[in-house]
Description:
- The protein has two domains: about 1-75, no CATH class; about 110-380, TIM Barrel (Alpha-Beta Barrel).
- The protein is about 45% helix and about 20% strand.
- The chain contains 13 helices and 13 strands.
- The protein has helices at about 25-30, 30-50, 65-75, 80-95, 125-135, 155-165, 185-205, 225-245, 260-270, 280-285, 290-295, 330-335, 360-380, and strands at about 1-10, 15-20, 55-60, 110-115, 135-140, 170-175, 210, 245-250, 275-280, 300-305, 305-310, 315-320, 345.
- The strands form three sheets. An eight-stranded parallel β-barrel has the order 4-5-6-7-8-9-10-13, surrounded by six helices. The chain has a three-stranded antiparallel sheet with strand order 2-1-3.
- Residues about 1-20, about 75-85 and about 90-105 have low confidence and may be disordered.
Amino acid sequence: MHTPTSIVPSRSQRSPLTSVIEANRVLMRNNPAEIRSMVENMFETGRMSRGYMMCVGNHIPWNVSPDAIKRHNGTSISPPNWRRVRQKIDFEKKYGCNNITNERDKDVMKLSFATLGCPGWSIEQVAANAKTMGFDGVELRGSKGEHIGPDETPEEKKRIRKLFKDQGVEIAAIMGYSTFTSDDPAKREESIRTAIQFLETARDIGCPVLRIFGGMHSQELDREGNIKRVAEGIRRVADHAERLGVKLALETHDAWCLGENLSAVLKRVGSPALGICWDVGNSFFAEPLEETYAGIRGHIAHVHFKDAARGSDGKEESRLPGKGEVPLQKALEILSSGDYDQYLSFEWEKKWQPTLAEPEVAFPHYVRFVKGLLKADINQK
Length: 381
């Protein structure tokens, strides 16, 4: 039995021969997040090596856990990975990228929508409409009694996983609502327990990302105290995320929209399982996009790609993409400059604003608009 040694390229040097990670050592540690990262690096190598890739076969030592081998092989031959490759090729052909070899470094971002925008749809409708409307994935609102809860039965989780797999639609993320700044220790503990439950749910339904919040700043603490409190809570959840192979995505939301503060939390937590959910709308109204990005570059696990405008009262109001004030083309260019290639998720807040356009109108508009931006971004490179 053999396993490949992963040749891991450097993004800065664009060379597939910059460094080498011995896969057997990773397998022996049997850390799900580390194994997933290794496999992703293999795919990165393939994308950067002009269509050719050499794998060096090594014998797997006797003391490697069978679970680690299954985890590696299951990840490396996972249908969503191959589906993504086909989508990339189809996209490049459709939008006139005739020389696919020359376009390999321009990864195609994927489209999803958050089910916050379709509160009246059943989960069956979510899966079917996502496919029909041209989305690659969905972001399920995580709340008891909603599209997915923290305590679904094993049977229901299997059903949900199969439902989306049969439609060829990925579950891009779960929208969790855990916060970590409450002055009430009992509430913080409850948030941590719920986040861990959702991590287990995400693992069981094949979802790679759990969105979390920081929460509003505690008035009892200064900036450093709030950062410390949030980081301590997230660190406890991140321990489980590492074990389960699911990424936490701390959203730019509430009091945590500034890149400087997010960077401080990332450093204090110090876990590879923690990333950022960059809500470009929330970010834009807090500080220039470039400033936020400077603090979170290299840590973006998920993106909420939405538009908004200030109303007469100064409050932010949702708008269809291209109809508001958020510079979405600029946001896309910033993401592309950092090689982001995951989901652009449409957060249409119809759950909270019932007068917004119906999802049957808003969702297809989003697909047309964002694909137009992606086409323009590719043509500029």
